[in-house]
Design goal:
The chain has a single domain, classed as Thrombin, subunit H, CATH 2.40.10.120. The chain has 5 helices and 16 strands. The protein has helices at about 5-10, 50-55, 110, 125-130, 235-245, and strands at about 15-20, 25-35, 45-50, 60-70, 75-80, 95, 100-105, 115, 135-140, 155-160, 175-180, 190-200, 205-220, 225-235, 265, 270-275. It is globular and about 50 Å long. Pfam families: Trypsin_2.
């Protein structure tokens, strides 16, 4: 492969925010996916955690686009994203069983090009094919407490190790744990694996492994104490949510277990920072 998933996802990840009218704002994270319609029409999809949109009370959010300038600098230019009708009807599609949301957007051409192909999302067998297990390192992108990496509005890249076993199959274990400190504002950010050389099960040669494993949806908290563990929802459920944009009755997986017992959402509701 000639692409670097870390860099590609940095460009595809955006800050989502909604001013609350009192000098503060609610913040979450999302990322863009290139998912053509069944008839082949190009389409850009914004993916985030369902609770990010659900906790934004207004009809319009803001999506943090970034544009490159001729001198090598970048400009941060948030634009309006309509998420509800006037009557309160939600315009996004949500997974009926998992904390995942998707909405078709019209992004500026420069930003639409940054959307990652839907094929980069892990499938049901991706973890087993690549031997993903406890102790493997994954990376995550987001805007903790609404903080960006710089004035250009790029997301902050962090990492953690897979902290649960087993992690597959997704229909049995729809979420997995990541040894990673979650802050409000991280919700909805992509979690991914990008290794230059990894020996897959049954293979004698090391191969490059790059895929989006899922999105961050919760933090583990017990008796009001943060355990510095994040909960990641498997990318399989992102795929199912996107499929429901075209067919609201598209089948979804009903998982038999869940690692989120005792956890609560790292919700956008808490990610209140100065406007």
């Amino acid at each position: 492969m000639v692409w670097d998933l870390s860099v590609e996802l940095i460009h595809a990840t955006v800050q989502l925010e909604q001013p609350l009218g009192d000098g503060t704002r609610t913040v979450g994270t999302g990322f863009l996916v290139k998912a053509p319609t069944p008839d082949g029409r190009p389409r850009t999809i914004l993916v985030t955690a369902n609770h990010v949109f659900a906790k934004m009370p207004g009809a319009n959010a803001r999506i943090g686009y970034r544009f490159s300038n001729s001198d090598g600098s970048w400009s941060y230019s948030p634009q309006t994203l309509k998420i509800r009708e006037r009557g309160g009807e939600e315009l996004w599609t949500k997974h009926p069983a998992r904390d995942v949301a998707a909405i078709e957007i019209t992004a500026p051409p420069e930003f639409a090009k940054a959307a990652i192909p839907v094929d980069w999302l892990a499938k049901d067998d991706t973890f087993s094919k690549n031997g993903v297990a406890a102790g493997d390192q994954m990376m995550a992108l987001g805007f903790p407490r609404g903080l960006a990496a710089n004035q250009a509005g790029f997301p902050i890249l962090r990492s953690g190790k897979v902290a649960s076993y087993p992690v597959a199959p997704a229909n049995v274990f729809p979420t997995f744990l990541l040894d990673f400190t979650v802050f409000p504002g991280n919700s909805g950010g992509p979690v991914f694996m990008s290794e230059g050389a990894r020996r897959r099960p049954g293979s004698v040669e090391a191969q490059e492994v790059q895929f989006v494993a899922g999105l961050l949806t919760q933090q583990v908290e017990l008796n009001n104490e943060r355990l510095e563990i994040g909960i990641v929802t498997h990318a399989k459920y992102i795929r199912e949510t996107i499929a429901r944009l075209d067919d609201p009755l598209a089948p979804v997986t009903v998982a038999h277990a869940d690692n989120s017992t005792g956890a609560r959402a790292a919700s956008a509701e808490e990610a209140v920072s100065p406007d």
